[in-house]
Amino acid sequence: MTELSVNLNAVALLRNRRDLPWPSVTGLGRIALEAGANGLTVHPRPDERHTRRSDLPALRALIDTEFPEREFNIEGNPTEDFLELVEDIQPEQVTLVPDDPGQVTSDHGWNFKADGARLHKIVARLKVTTGARISLFADADPSQMAAAAETGCDRVELYTGPYGSCHDDPEAAARELEKLAQATEAAMACGLGVNAGHDLTVENLIPLVLRIPDLAEVSIGHGLTADALIHGMAETVRRFRRACGQDA
Ligand SMILES: CC(=O)[C@@H](O)[C@H](O)COP(=O)(O)O
Ligand SMILES: NCC(=O)COP(=O)(O)O
């Protein structure tokens, strides 16, 4: 079964339009977990335009006190600041993403052949200091997976942006889906678990999970938050859970 982690960055982005505490990032996170989300994801960037460092203790406490079997996933570029942040918060999963501070959103995975030695050290450090599962953001490129595994990570998160951007071109979407399937096969052959995320929607999630039933987790924010404006967060989470093949 594919698990669903709800990314709260888009909720935080809306909150940050004003110097006011709503919509509440923790409150929407609670509704998502009550509706059966398997976990929460945040991607705190250095400029704090989405989730802020100060959001993280409350989300940690929410999971610890009310949903102890669910997971907190923190994504980010592994600067020293980021590493100290995850060491403080102790998430169940850390997803390392190679994005620059000014980047609008994440748009590529690691080049494991070039960055492998650096990532190996970071993965080793986080395993000792957090005990978290470590996932590395990856393009759908089977030839990178052996080098990804050599870093010592547990999983890769396949970047699904190119697949998500084909929403009006079914043939191109089918080609991107095949690339994701081939990359999953290569990653699993190297002993890695596989997550996926970026620009996923209920519509493109259903064929993704049907084609790649071994996906361990999808993390979804933008498309899920857009649907939550229409259907409400609880009903939206149930829709995405059903798209993941879960009973909801
Ligand atoms: C790592 C990744 O794929 C991103 O999708 C990200 O976490 C989304 O972040 P934003 O919502 O901040 O663009
Ligand atoms: N890791 C991807 C993620 O958390 C959410 O990405 P998106 O759904 O906001 O594009």
UniProtKB/TrEMBL annotation:
Keyword Oxidoreductase in record: no
Site (Transition state stabilizer): E157
A single cellular component GO annotation: cytosol
GO molecular function, one term: pyridoxine 5'-phosphate synthase activity
Compartments where located: Cytoplasm
Root EC class: transferase
Residues the record lists as binding 3-amino-2-oxopropyl phosphate: N7, R18, D199, G221, H222
EC id: 2.6.99.2
Active site positions: H43 (proton acceptor), E75 (proton acceptor), H198 (proton donor)
Pathway of action: Cofactor biosynthesis; pyridoxine 5'-phosphate biosynthesis; pyridoxine 5'-phosphate from D-erythrose 4-phosphate: step 5/5
One example of a Gene Ontology biological process annotation: pyridoxine biosynthetic process
Binding-site positions, 1-deoxy-D-xylulose 5-phosphate: R45, H50, T105
Keyword ATP-binding: no
SUPFAM superfamilies noted in UniProt: Pyridoxine 5'-phosphate synthase
Chief place where the protein resides: cytoplasm
Catalytic reaction equation(s): 3-amino-2-oxopropyl phosphate + 1-deoxy-D-xylulose 5-phosphate = pyridoxine 5'-phosphate + phosphate + 2 H2O + H(+)
Keywords assigned by UniProt, alphabetized: Cytoplasm, Pyridoxine biosynthesis, Transferase
Subunit composition and interactions: Homooctamer; tetramer of dimers.
Reported function: Catalyzes the complicated ring closure reaction between the two acyclic compounds 1-deoxy-D-xylulose-5-phosphate (DXP) and 3-amino-2-oxopropyl phosphate (1-amino-acetone-3-phosphate or AAP) to form pyridoxine 5'-phosphate (PNP) and inorganic phosphate.
Family: Belongs to the PNP synthase family.
Protein name, UniProt field: Pyridoxine 5'-phosphate synthase
The species this protein was found in: Henriciella mobilis
Organism ancestry: Bacteria, Pseudomonadati, Pseudomonadota, Alphaproteobacteria, Hyphomonadales
Gene that specifies this protein: pdxJ
